[in-house]
Amino acid sequence: MSPGRAARRHPARGGAERAGPGSAWTERDLLHQMLRIRRFEERCVELYSREEIRGFLHLGIGQEACAVGVVAALGADDAIVATYREHAQALARGIPMRAVMAELMGRAEGCSGGRGGSMHLFDASTRFFGGNAIVGGGLPLAAGLALADSMRSRDRVTVCFFGDGATAEGVFHETMNLAALWHLPVLFACENNRYAMGTAIARAKAETDLALEAARYRMPAWSVDGMDVHAVRRAAEAAVAAVAAGGGPHFLELRTYRFRAHSMYDPEHYRDKAEVEQWRQRDPIPALQQALLASGSLAPSDVDELQARVDAEVDDAVAFAAAGTLEPIETLYRHVTAAPSPTAPGGPAAAGTVPAPSPSPSPVAGADGAPGAARSPSTGPASAPPAPAPRR
Amino acid sequence: MTVVTYREALRQAIRQAMVSDDRVFLMGEDVGRYGGCYAVSLGLLQEFGPDRVRDTPLSESAFVGAGIGAALGGMLPIVEVMTVNFSLLALDQLVNTAAALRYMSAGQFGVPLVVRMTTGAGRQLAAQHSHSLEGWYAHVPGLRILAPATHEDASGMLWPALQDPDPVLLFEHGSLYNVRADLADDAGPVPLEGAAVRRRGDDVTVVAYGGTLPTALAAADQLGSEGIGVEVVDLRSLRPLDAATVVSSVVRTHRAVVVDEGWRTGSLSAEVASRVTEDAFYDLDAPVARVCSAEVPMPYAKHLEDAALPQPADVVAAVRALGA
Ligand SMILES: Cc1ncc(C[n+]2csc(CCOP(=O)(O)OP(=O)(O)O)c2C)c(N)n1
Ligand SMILES: [Mg+2]
Question: Which of B59, B292, B299 sits opposite A374 (nearest CB)?
Fold first, then answer.
């Protein structure tokens, strides 16, 4: 499907070259990015089974080319809105692996200060707007960011990642319509991994061609092989350039597959092992690696070197997170509003840091964590009983 | 007697209802092939088929709305919403349609719908999967709000809820699913209304519901070993609220602590405390106390989440502060 609509040029948008951290990525860098994401998530599995990471943990193993290819197309000032399956986007975008791992382990040094966990990674410095765990919840947020840019004539693009399942939500359709109607500078990057938890797309959608569906909202939309990082990057570069040039919203359907369970709790009753095996044959990482080896742009020793770099980075991130501190309980009320601790009258004394327990977290709460006022009894000790009075 | 999990008690109730009445069907996200996000409906698809165990697309507003329509159309739908946080996407359907339809139509149309959902924190699921918003729903006339905290209620509330000609919301606290307890083999329907005294005591009344019942009971155990007799009242139904049972307990104990996993401001605990002061003011030896969740979006890190939630120690402290 090609852009059916003449691009309306925004006065402030020249469609100039967008330089972001990923713009200069070579083929080898693309491989490196995918490898570090893969290794990071494989380590997450180990940490989860050791109970160092808790809560819901959604891995994108198999889908790395989507995040890496799209992020490669972004400028430094562009924004990302992602889902709960967002480790890859966060890492590719440049949130330090240490900060991401620390967040997963609930540490104060995490990119959300331990308040968010795996599903809620945030980073202002890279304009990474989360980590949204309400399916479809990020879509209108992305449209709003794009609206602000458009009203301010800022040369920025907002990319919104979401899954195939999200396209069944009403909010998806409302956002598509609004973005197209208002010609917003937003790129919708739909990672179609064919399942929403256990629900195959054909069991959830009357129209399973998601690009076709998006095109009905009068926005250029393409389907792309999401297992091919080059294809994703090329498509994303074209789409981002068109959005930046004033072409209005664009939509990419990235056809991909998650190799592992939906989350750590999923027994995978809903799909055949053979199907998973088939898709594993299309793993984007060995595919790129073999192509680079075949073309001679990568030597076997380079592969070893990349692996060693990635292992070292992940080891370092885990060590950093494990040595991290726990946010002091006294700060529980911090960040509820911009004003300091409005709901904790009496205000906590300046708190020291609580050392992280090791190896596995032991209860810290209750040690000396004076509960906030809202949890204390609403009154002080009982006063004398009131004088008897007539009963009603 | 058989030892079952709370989850199995719920499943048996759904199964029984589907066997007993072919108008009953279950729908929601991943209730079928996946087996339910908390595995409540595991195996039901195999037994009843995809027509009656119906996987829906991700579209809370649409499938809750469709449940309302099916109920209007003579069916007895059980709609599962994965968690109360996601039910906010269907808030319009629940509040503006399900709750109001009978009234708006001057009694011509009722909505015999049951909506089940998970609520509550304690599993490090952070700020979009952990809140206790059942108190909001309890604000709305036209809805019946249930919070089964025991296995008897988990298995016994569904059938009468389906018989209710009006919409019923059933809140299952996530921390209860794996709890094992005895359930009578002939455990049957239970009354939907009326709070229950889960433990007798003369010195203080602790009011709890759903996931805070175990918290209250743990505190009562501890205080009991110190010679303080705690009466624990389980609200069971949040709307209608059985204030009379609470009040008659307080009239005896003269002290009350309300434990609520919702936020304190504007909470169900505020309602309970008001009822006690309205109806038992002159029987109180101390102001009514409350133990609620900290007024923050639920944090992820374990120690912060624990600090944000009502713990047995908080209940113990609250009781002591009342001079019981
Ligand atoms: C509004 C809402 N409903 C349900 C859920 C539970 N849930 C979490 S992920 C998911 C599947 C989403 O599938 P998709 O959009 O395809 O993304 P994927 O998980 O495949 O990346 C569901 C149903 C949720 N988080 N939010
Ligand atoms: Mg999906």
Answer: B292
The model's confidence at residue A385, banded by pLDDT at 50, 70 and 90, is very low
> Which residue range(s) make up the domain with A132?
3-7+25-346
Cα B217 to ligand 2 centroid, rounded to whole Å? 42
**Distance (Å) from CA A196 to ligand 1 centroid:** 6
> What beta strand segments (E) does chain B contain?
2-5, 24-28, 53-55, 76-83, 114-119, 144-146, 168-173, 180-183, 196-199, 204-208, 230-234, 237-239, 256-263, 289-293
Q: What residues of chain B, 85 to 144, have a C-beta less than 8 Å from chain A?
A: 85-86, 89, 123-129
**Residue B159: per-residue pLDDT:** 98
Helix (H, G, I), strand (E, B) or coil at A147: helix
Q: Residue A295 maps to which CATH number?
A: 3.40.50.970
Helix (H) or strand (E) holding A325: strand A325-326
Is A355 a member of any domain?
A: no
- Read off the pLDDT of residues B199-233 as tens digits, 9 standing for 90 and up: 999 999 999 999 999 999 999 999 999 999 999 99
Torsion of Cα atoms, B272 then B275 then B277 then B281, to 10°: -130
Secondary structure (H, E, C), B46-79: HHHCCCCEEECCCCHHHHHHHHHHHHHCCCEEEE
A221-235 pLDDT, tens digit each: 999 999 999 999 999
ipTM: 0.82
Number of domains in chain A: 1
Q: Is B82 in the pocket of ligand 1 (CB under 6 A)?
A: yes
Domains identified in chain B and CATH numbers: 2-183 (3.40.50.970), 196-321 (3.40.50.920)
| Amino acid identity at B239 | R
Residue A133 within a domain? yes
Position A240 in a domain: yes
Residue partners of B290: CB distance under 8 A and separation at least 6: A377, A378, B257, B258, B259, B260, B264, B267, B269, B270, B273, B318
Is A172 a domain residue? yes
Q: How far is CA B254 from the centre of its chain?
A: 27
Q: What angle do CA A303, A19, A163 make, to 5 degrees?
A: 70
